[in-house]
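Case study B.
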Amino acid sequence: MRQPENRRVVISAYEVSTPLGHGLDRTWERAAKNESGLGWITRFDPGDYPVRVVGEIPDYDPAKGGLFKERELGFWNARFIHLAVDLCRDALRKAGLEVTAETGPRIGAMMGSAIGGSDAYEEALRTIAERGAGRVSPFLLPNLCVNLSAGMASIKLGFTGPVLSVVSACATGGHAVAEAAWTIQRGAADAMLAGGVEFPLLPAILYGFGNMRTLFRPRDESDRAWTDPARASRPYSVDRRGFVLAEGGAILLLAELGFARRHKLPIIAEITGAAMTSDASHFTQPRKETIVRCIRGAIEDAGVGPGDIQHINGHGTSTTVGDEVELECLAEVFGPGLRSIPITSNKSQVGHSLAASAAIELALSAECLRRGRLLPTINIEPEDRWAHLDFVPVAREAAIDRVLSSSFGFGGTNCCVVLERFKES
Amino acid sequence: METRNDAVVVGYDAMTPLGFTLEETWKNAEAGRSGVRGITRFPLSRDYPVRVAGEVPDLDFSRFPFWNERDQANWFSPVIFGAMAVVHRALAMAGLELGEQDKPRTAVVFSSAIGGLDAMIDAEKRHASGRTPHPFTNPNGCLNLVAGKVSMMTGATGPCFSPVAACATGNVSIALGSQLLGLGLAEIAICGAVDFPVLPSLVASFAAMNGAFQSQRTDDRAATDPALASRPFSRDRKGFVLSEGSAALILASAEAAKSRGLRRLGTIRGVGMNGDASHYVQPHEPTITRCMALALEDAGIEPEDIDYVSAHAASTRLGDLVESRAIHAIFGAKTPPVGALKSQLGHTMGASSAIEAVLAIEGMRRGIALPTIHLDSDPEIDINHVANEAARIDQELVLSNSFGFGGANCCIVFERGES
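Model:
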């Protein structure tokens, strides 16, 4: 390989779709009002199964996106593909970047999904049971290919740079953005659409996670979410009881600084640091040593020290062990200074959309930098030992220049990214 | 002179339909044999559309040090042990034991196109018949766990994730591994891919797409010998044959290889990656041509420097033809020798390009170019075939192509290492 060019990578645009609403504007508006997007499940009837709170995108309709004709939606029936393509189109549009003969070959896509087209697979099984094997869609396999989100975006939007997926469970969005940034840094592309998309509200997935005891279920009637599902996701709180499975997606448009300038793209933030580590220990239990190294690695890569981080967008899924280990790791990296760094878990409002979550959190972090406003960790009632920390109970103004966003995935895979308000020089 | 930052290949391994070990695979590949046979992994009903597949023979992980009965019961999808086994052997070939210093600097970029889909299918079956799914269903089905388990086995704590590009997955894992080394984000990268796709619903779905070979005509060459079903570049090619396999490559930065006294068995000279932006399965000539050109450019070489092309050629009507045209577009009328290894191996999905990378490197070290077997040359495909028998050819630089569903392309130029 050629020697990397070590170029600067900026974020020019992003679009998100969350249980708070389809589109950044709707999500932001409700997030800034401290609302929750979580509610009782409607996607299917879980019978008497005790996990009933989920996050559903309330207002996304692929037929309205205009990129898929009605007939196409019949055979391209994996929803992660529709949403990925729509978000890519919206991000390009927002940045005002046109795919032309000149730019097309230099624009690529790197995005992931943890469960991909499992919805298409479930539908195929139903078809077999109800109508016979001969009626299974010949499009089943491409719908199951995780990389078809990036592939279909390339097909519909016309760009021909590197087009692929990365998968790292709940850290996927982070790995995709970091890998995309490195691909630009190396010079293999000038712009990348990066992120993650997930539609996990299927019986098998919900029951699978539910039986692992990772999903929120109320203990009894005294639980504060017993009658109010908005209280179910409570990262870092003393009574947290597992994460809330959610739909979601986010795509960020990354660009090399010179390319962004030549094409007059907005420059919202710069990706100045990123690091990845692996726990090499257990597939679900997090390991402090390697998480600490990942956080430190991203800060070092940004060329700054822990004291220069002004906001932490945490992984905070609302699981008993995960949140505890994360806070212990943050305390180790930031020391006593941690008390003055606001910590937010967006999952308190939008739940956990697996592969999409880290991308959503990076987009919302960039938006916080842009607007000078912090989003909250709603429902926060911290344990005594963490009561001195600032979990941003309600959204507030704050001029910040540098954010650390962390994500830690199943299989022990970690990714941290540092975003900064863009500065010349 | 431009500064280069090539990743060095210090160890590699594969298990394929031609053999459970690399040694066995190579011996059979060099002899021009096929690993394609009648399907044995599941019972075939009379009207089942596909009869042939490439299955890894003698699949038995019990002699590996990572094996124990409890783990075998938990990690039941063969993609998990299939990945761990080739990494274990590749590290042994490299003579590399990861020390405490190495572990944080070692990345795992290992992947799979379909992952543990068999685990999900098993769960659906149990669920449908009123039984509880296996508690390890999700861990087996979570695609990045092939990388995660390799990380746990080796103790590697550097970057760890699974890139996916359908049938180009193996090559993109090598590409992103090299990129991590090039950017100094790791010193060693364990790369590769695994797939065990010979599952009833999957094989039938490929047939429904008209992608998989499914002729039951008595006048077809494969009627008497199933091995003849995979015949890339032949005039009567009729789709690919699904196969199982796994391959690993241990990469190191030049400095890391030197300081640890590791042998340079090959070099990743250049990588090209792009997308077709055209059709979800049909290949697109201009972009696959450009992908090869990007790899040559990244390697800093000219087309005439390439001594052998390991083609993607899966044995599909259109795919093989378009690739041959793209090869002409790069190399002109007279092409370098071209081999289609899927004629011997079938199509191991995401693992295929990783396996082909391993065989390309082994072939360079031995001065042997592997052939396209079963070749009854399509007159429309006028490339320089290594036809039917392996050829003794000195190769300094080899181009290995892979083109995946969704229009994900990745081409890599490998350079010869120590023999």
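Chain A touches chain B through 81 residues (CB under 8 Å). The remaining cases will be described in the next quarterly update.
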